[in-house]
Amino acid sequence: MDIARTPSSPDGNTVMADAAPTPHEPPVIRREDYKPFEWLVPEVSLDFDLGLGSTRVVATLSVAPNAKADPSTTIRLNGDGLEPLAVQVDGEIVSDWSMDGYDLIIPLTGEGHELRVTTQISPAANSALMGLFASNGMLCTQCEAEGFRRITFFPDRPDVLSTYRVRMSGLKAHFPVLLSNGNLEAQGEGEDGTHWAEWHDPWPKPSYLFALVAGDLVANSDSFTTMSGREVALNIYVRDGDLPRTGHAMESLKKSMRWDEKVFGREYDLDLFNIVAVSDFNMGAMENKGLNVFNTKYVLADPDTATDGDFDGVEGVIAHEYFHNWSGNRVTCRDWFQLSLKEGFTVLRDQLFSQDMGSEPVKRIEDVRVLRGAQFPEDSGPLAHPIRPDSYREISNFYTATIYNKGAEVIRMMRSMCGEERFRAGTDLYFDRHDGEAATCEDFVKAIEDGAELDLEQFRLWYSQAGTPKVSVRLEHDGDTATLHLSQDVPPTPGQPEKQPMPIPLRIALFDRESGKHDGEQLITLTKAQDSFSFEGFATKPVLSINRGFSAPVVIERDIAQDDLVFLAAHDDDPFARYEALQDLVVGHLKDVIDGNLDDSERDTGRQAIAAAISAVLDDEHIDDLMRGEMLLLPSEGYLAETMLVADPGAIHEARQGLRAYLGTQLEEAWKALHQRASSVPFSHDAEARGARKVKTHALAYLAAGDVDGVQELAWEQYSSADNMTDRQGALMVLCNLDGPERTRALLDFYNRYKDNALVIDKWFSLQSMSLHPNAIEHVKALADHPQFTLKNPNRVRSLYMGFAVNPQAFHDASGEGYRMIADLILQLDPINPQTAARFVTPLGRWRRIEPKRSALMKAELEQIAAAGDLSRDTSEQVSRSLG
Ligand code: PHE
Ligand code: ZN
Q1: What residues form DSSP beta bridges with 105?
Q2: Radius of gyration of the CA atoms of the chain, in A
Q3: Alpha carbon distance, N-terminus to C-terminus of the chain
Q4: What angle do CA 281, 283, 285 make, to 5 degrees?
Q5: What is the pLDDT of residue 7?
Q6: Any idea what DSSP says for residue 364?
Q7: In terms of C-beta density within 10 A (0-12 exposed, 13-18 middle, 19 or more buried), how is residue 730 classed?
Q8: N or C: which end of the chain has fewer CB within 10 A?
Q9: How remote is the C-alpha of 426 from its chain's centroid?
Q10: Gap between the Cα atoms of 132 and 259, Å rounded
Q11: Displacement of CA 771 from its chain's centroid (Å)
């Protein structure tokens, strides 16, 4: 293709790009203001002249009036920090364009045209990692949500779908591999050591799914035969030395492809599927059509450098991005308010996949823990928003646990209400009806409603109302009738003071205490503010098991005797409900301790009941170690704080640690026996061996909490004899909390062993920042000056500072030092990488729910940030919402 390359500077125009002011309060974008774009852009052709320091882009757009929109005499092409070096309309250079802020406005008559715009960008200077950026000498793009406008001028919105042709050329020595979406159509050698490649993607897509990668990469190559017999070439591209760590990702990819065919009837639609791993990435991974780009963290894994959890993470994220090919790419989003349309649904799909690949109940418990740890606090704090938000200022701030995880829960509820088969009929209809379109959440709900024959009229409230419903539960027994009294309350959230009752599907069972059995599970749906449900044939009062499998993402407040919780913790045949009973038992006890409700003997009685329940879990032969490991985990300090209106992090920490120490000493022999049994299981990836590794470190951690004799030696023994990262990291985590020569010795050994592996060094940073060691704050300060620390790499930043922000003891240090460190980080990081910086506002934003002294310190830090001025849109939005 012959694309004009000479820039010409147009006369009579002021290029505003550099001078454009950053408005202090960025404008609010509203869902209700949606209008279709005035122009269609059926075809795009991009020509890249690649260089790390400078890359030239020539974009050619075919445009035509959109019959479904108002006619217009101009076209607005979004840009972000770009300068138009040349603008052509129908082959002629024009100069009547203008800039509106960063956007390029070109006058156009109301018929089809060809636009051509030349821009020049500096990938090496792009530290925000949005648009085209450099990472370890390679070039890579990230366009979701609004990164394409940092590459070229374009209607950068998801409802403009185009087919893309991409030509790129660059020095062969620097960029031996040249990739983009779709199929490779031609390649060849150029002058002066350059080469070029031309890619074509036949599937129309929005700009956020565009991708380009150029670099010195090697591939793990394989293939997959689809259900209709088409062969798809698969490649996972990594840097040379990383190839041996790509096997698990490849297996995960093939399993995902097969599973999506079998469970959702979705077949892959190109002859090629490429994955590229990059070490500098803001998120986990990105589903660009045919060219997924991944954070190395979710590709690379081998037993020596990755834990069992890391292996699961790779499998889950590979599946997630692959599943987006249908839920996201073939059917995309009309606008960014519909983000949960692709993300909530795709998270549900990856959760169901992982449930099928491993242990279903354990996966469910893990997913609920994530929801409670990240989404519940969001839903009860200043950043609360519905899964389909009504407004935003910076869309990057809405890639949240609410959109993703609560979004998945909402769709999971639909599935529970109609059953798997009808749900599948609903999703089939959805894909069929909206294939090739940019759809809305409403389109999804309607398709499930029609396809699954489910009335979702009232259910739509789950899309519009924020806040986690609280359900109060009381079981009454009279004669032979048990009556369940339920009431719901959806708390007020920012902008939504009043709420309507929502339909809440609850799976329940009523146990006979004598036999330990029930007559089958039922699904009841609470649709009103209050309701009662009667069950006959109970001569004695049954024990209620409710929200089994976590059938609804709500907080259950049950009026239940401690004995009944002990009964359920031992006998419930729903693994989640069993886990939950034990959690509730512990939460109830710890809250009593924190509130000072118990005298010494009452406290001991409570502790003994918990120790007995845990001891029963340790002895239970009917559960496997993976499940046992879940049951042994006490509710986190964050979760405990979430159950209180105003939390005192110091008191929570003390009470929880006190209980751990008690359990450590009280059950010392059992922990030692468990540790020994688990240590004798040889390494493998099967469930038994993974379970053994999980309980092994739990046992060690309890022994350490109890400070029992010889625990340092035992931890060192586990550390030094480990033949896999799960055991080694587990032991190092325990040692990190202690104060002794083994700690230093292990940290030094770990560093020297893995100093060339960035992902493992991330673990080394985060283990220290998450440590219970009394000097954790000082350690984090010292680590910030470590030669391997850099603010330029998001994984490294997160490993040190997210670890620290979720370390309640250190972050909530009464001096306020922890708050100050996070505020300083935000200010330092904001000019480098606003997206990542803004994510650190959340922990400080919890100030309203923290006891007054700390609360004031947290708020003061937020005010300090707000006063700094010149903040990014990302950070300023989060800070003002957090203070508002
Ligand atoms: N769409 C990606 C995913 O969830 C997440 C992402 C968003 C990645 C924005 C990069 C930037 O799969
Ligand atoms: Zn996603």
Answers
A1: 76, 98
A2: 28
A3: 54
A4: 90
A5: 34
A6: H
A7: buried
A8: C
A9: 26
A10: 33
A11: 23
CA 801 to chain centre: 17
Residues in the chain: 884
Which H/E stretch holds residue 63? strand 55-65
Is any ligand 1 atom within 6 A of the Cβ of residue 48? no
> How many degrees, rounded to 5, is the angle at CA 22 between CA 21 and CA 25?
125
Q: Known catalytic residues?
A: 321
Between the CA of 34 and the centroid of ligand 2 the distance, in Å, is: 23
Dihedral sign for Cα atoms in the order 760, 762, 763, 764: positive
Q: Is the CB of 376 under 6 A from ligand 1?
A: no
Q: Which residue has the tokens 């009464």?
A: 814
Query: Does the structure's ipTM exceed the value 0.95?
Result: yes
**Single-letter residue type at 405:** N
Residue 867 identity:
A
Which residue has a Cα nearest atom 3 of ligand 1?
Answer: 286
Per-residue pLDDT at 199: 99
Backbone angles phi, psi at 23, to 5 degrees: -65, 145
Q: Which residue has the tokens 């500098």?
A: 280
What pLDDT, on a 0 to 100 scale, did the predictor assign at position 21? 40
Q: What is the distance between the alpha carbons of residues 369 and 351, in angstroms, rounded to a whole number?
A: 13
Report the separation in Å between the CA atom of 315 and the middle of ligand 1, taken as the mean of its atom positions. Answer: 16
d(C-alpha 456, C-alpha 65), whole Å:
37
Tokens 């003071």 locate to: 497
- Sheet containing strand 55-65, strands side by side: 92-93, 86-89, 113-121, 55-65, 39-49, 162-171, 194-205, 183-189
Give the Å distance between the CA of 58 and the centre of ligand 1.
Answer: 26
The answer to whether the CB of 343 is under 6 A from ligand 1 is yes
pLDDT value for 869: 82
CA–CA distance, 40 with 69 (Å, rounded to integer): 10
Cα angle 631, 617, 539; round to 5: 100
Q: Give burial (CB, 10 Å; 0-12/13-18/19+) of 540.
A: exposed
Indicate the SS3 state at residue 328. coil
pLDDT tens per residue across span 331-378: 999 999 999 999 999 999 999 999 999 999 999 999 999 999 999 999
Q: 272-318 pLDDT, tens per residue?
A: 999 999 999 999 999 999 999 999 999 999 999 999 999 999 999 99
For 575-598, b/e burial (b = at least 16 CB within 10 A) is: bbbbbbbbbbbbbbbbeebbeeeb
Extract the runs of DSSP E, i.e. beta strands, from 811-861: none
Which residue has the least CA distance to atom 11 on ligand 1? 144
pLDDT score at 24: 60
Q: How far is the CA of 284 from the centre of ligand 2 (A)?
A: 9
Q: What are 678-730's pLDDT values in tens digits?
A: 999 999 999 999 999 999 999 999 999 999 999 999 999 999 999 999 999 99
Q: How many Å separate Cα 385 from the centre of its chain?
A: 16
CB count, 10 Å around CB of 18? 7
- 3-class SS of residue 675: helix
Which pLDDT does position 604 carry in this prediction?
96
Number of H-type helices and E-type strands within the chain: 31, 32
Token readout for 655 is: 């009470």
Do 702 and 611 form a contact (C-beta atoms < 8 A)? no
The atom of ligand 1 lying closest to the CA of 343 is 4
Q: Which residues pair with 869 in a beta bridge?
A: none
- Closest to 590 measured CA to CA, from 661, 654, 665: 654
Q: How many CB atoms lie within 10 A of CB 24?
A: 10
How many angstroms separate the CA atoms of 41 and 188, rounded?
29
Whole-model pTM: value is: 0.97
Q: What is the pLDDT of residue 22?
A: 41
Low-confidence ranges of the chain (pLDDT < 70): 1-24
Phi, psi values for residue 705, rounded to 5°: -60, -35
Furthest C-alpha separation in the chain = 93
Q: Ligand 1, atom 5: nearest CA belongs to which residue?
A: 286
Q: Is 770 helix (H, G, I), strand (E, B) or coil?
A: coil
Residues 843, 641: Cα–Cα separation, whole Å: 13
Q: Give the 3-state secondary structure of residue 394.
A: coil
